[in-house]
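Bit of a strange request maybe. I'm writing a small parser for structure token strings and I need a real example to test against, not something I typed by hand. Could someone generate the tokens for this chain?
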Amino acid sequence: MDRREFLRNGARTLIVAGLGIMSGVFVYRNYTTEETCTFKNMCKDCNSLEKCSLPEGVKYKKLK
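Reply from user aminoacidic:
Good idea to test on real output. This should exercise your parser:
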């Protein structure tokens, strides 16, 4: 194995490992149960207001 082949294989390994890690991060992020406000508590313009269970969202839905 020469140096060029070694570097090429190393780069491929890093790319595959990076893709695997990023895929894991995205999958884990979708399965977390903690609900957080993604719209900085501006309930009036929020697209997720119907399914929101945060105190601010519940309060806004009652006032609406």
